[in-house]
What we know:
Blueprint: H1 3-11, E1 28-32, E2 35-38, E3 43-46, H2 49-52, H3 61-73, H4 85-95, E4 102-108, H5 111-128, E5 136-140, H6 149-154, E6 171-174, H7 186-204, E7 208-213, E8 217-218, E9 224-225, H8 228-239, E10 244-248, H9 262-266, E11 272-275, E12 287-292, H10 293-297, H11 318-332, H12 334-357, E13 361-367, E14 370-375, H13 382-391, E15 394-395, E16 402-405, H14 413-428
Parallel strand pairs: 3-15, 5-6, 5-7, 7-10, 10-11
Antiparallel strand pairs: 1-2, 2-3, 4-12, 8-9, 11-12, 13-14, 14-16
Helix pairs in contact: 3-11, 4-11, 7-8, 12-14
Bound molecules: pyridoxal-5'-phosphate.
Pyridoxal-5'-phosphate binds next to helix 5.
Amino acid sequence: MTKLQERDKKIIWHPYTQEKTENLPIAIKKGAGSYLYDEDGRAYLDLISSWWVNIHGHAHPEIAKTIYEQACSLDHVLFAGCTHEPAVQLCENLAELLPLNLSRFFFSDNGSTCVEIALKMAYQYWRNQGQNERSLFLTFDGGYHGDTVGAMSVGANSGFHDVFRPLFFKILSIPYPETYIGDNEVEQKERKSLEILEKYLNEFGKKIAALIVEPLIQGARGMRMCRAEFLRAFVEKVRAHGILVVFDEVMTGFGRTGSNFAFEQAGVIPDFLCLSKGLTGGFLPLALTVTTETIYKGFSSDRWETAFAHGHSYTANPIACAAANASVSILKRTSTQCAIGVIHNAQKAGVASLCKLGANIAHPRVLGTIAAFDVQEASFSSKSFRYRLLQEGLLLRPLGRTVYVLPPYSTTAEELHTAYEKIGSILGA
Ligand SMILES: *Cc1c(COP(=O)(O)O)cnc(C)c1O
């Protein structure tokens, strides 16, 4: 145990951690590009993008410099009754990447809060329209939307929040037709989901406020992918009943799935788009709930009661907005877009090489820069696997039996190739 680990052990309570049985945390001292370095200078390739937030690599000099300069000129100001350049600039920059209909931007600090905001806006929108009966939310089994109580309610069947179930508001949940390379049953699964949807819509169509979905891929539940055609057909049916559509792109946003946003591949423009994780390139917490002019106008009247009474102390923090501006401009570069394509190909090759090795894996799947597979070995322990990977200089964090690789866009094809060789030899061993 190092000195820092010892001090940590005495005072810190870590997230998503059973403190009694978990190994000591690695004390990370430095980040540079795709690597993290511990106190002894050991390097770890960050194949989890530090919980899916880091897209351009660690300590990116352009983002770091922007943060310093912004902090020297305006640190923070309340965002009710005040505005500032970095916030307006960021929304203008993002508007260039988004369809014209997604034109109103509401700030918050993290994925859970931007989801809460979409849910509350959808709920209040119907009340402002005098449609008080619309109070149910439609979700998918396995959907994960964050850890605050509203976000947990719509993620009730994610498997993460069971102890809190009595606190949740009402949802209707549809089986998720997850698919993978070589899946012969996908159509059958999709048909079943659409049938159950029809049943719910016929019975509750007028009582549902909104659908919330992680488009194309459920992250936390285990990188479970669905087909774009299915999502499009699903949303079409939902919209025929006047129901609003929330796309939670907290993980999928900013190039992660190969396009800037997953909704582009689904061919669906949602009424609400939730963005966070990659927004600042992984430097600072920031989130946006983007919506349409129709929703925005639904809150505009001469009465205070129809306004959206929601805000956070750090809403639209200028330093975070400045970091996001720098990150978005790096994302827009041709070199970054090329890197995303290179990673996609390296991921496909990597997963294929594991399958060829016969490394006892099932359900291989790749979407954009994300690759995943399930380990079949009965004795597989994600904790000891994670430990072996660390010894090999790889930072990953399997979700149960699901191993996934989700690198920053600074990662090279060679680095991924070597990582897959190491993963293969650990799984084969
Ligand atoms: C991580 C995540 C969230 C929650 O974001 P936090 O910043 O951790 O609160 C919400 N939705 C999705 C799809 C996520 O992956």
